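[Discussion] Sanity-checking designs against the backbone

I'm trying to build intuition for which residues belong where. Below is a structure token string of 125 positions. I'd appreciate it if someone posts a full sequence so I can compare it with mine line by line.
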């Protein structure tokens, strides 16, 4: 299986397992869409101000709780966390949040960060 195929399987399992736990709790965020980062850049209006889920690897830490996440599309995207939502370079995360199609630098305002790990030689980047 290719790295991309492994990633898709891992992401699908993570989303399935995550949706089961979310189904038991009404207060956790749920996403409308599950794009890859390249789709956010190619059609930002489609995802603007919508709740989305993405998966990737933290490739750069910025000030406060802001970091860059990179997925299979190899394009980093700015993620804005909060005092409770922080990440470090090398973390593999599922991010649930709201996409803001800022023309200068699109970003996701994170609502939830779910640590994850690709098993079986995959990896996102």
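Best answer:
Here's mine. Compare freely.
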């Amino acid at each position: 299986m290719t790295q991309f195929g492994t990633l898709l399987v891992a992401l699908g399992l993570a989303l399935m397992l995550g949706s089961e736990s979310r189904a038991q709790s009404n207060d956790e965020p749920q996403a409308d869409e599950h794009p890859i980062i390249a789709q956010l850049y190619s059609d930002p209006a489609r995802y603007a101000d919508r709740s989305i889920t993405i998966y990737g690897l933290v490739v750069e830490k910025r000030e406060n709780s802001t970091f860059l996440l990179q997925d299979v599309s190899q394009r980093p995207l700015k993620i804005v966390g909060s005092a409770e939502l922080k990440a470090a370079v090398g973390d593999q995360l599922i991010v649930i949040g709201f996409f803001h199609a800022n023309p200068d630098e699109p970003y996701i305002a994170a609502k939830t960060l779910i640590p994850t790990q690709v098993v079986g030689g995959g990896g996102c980047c």
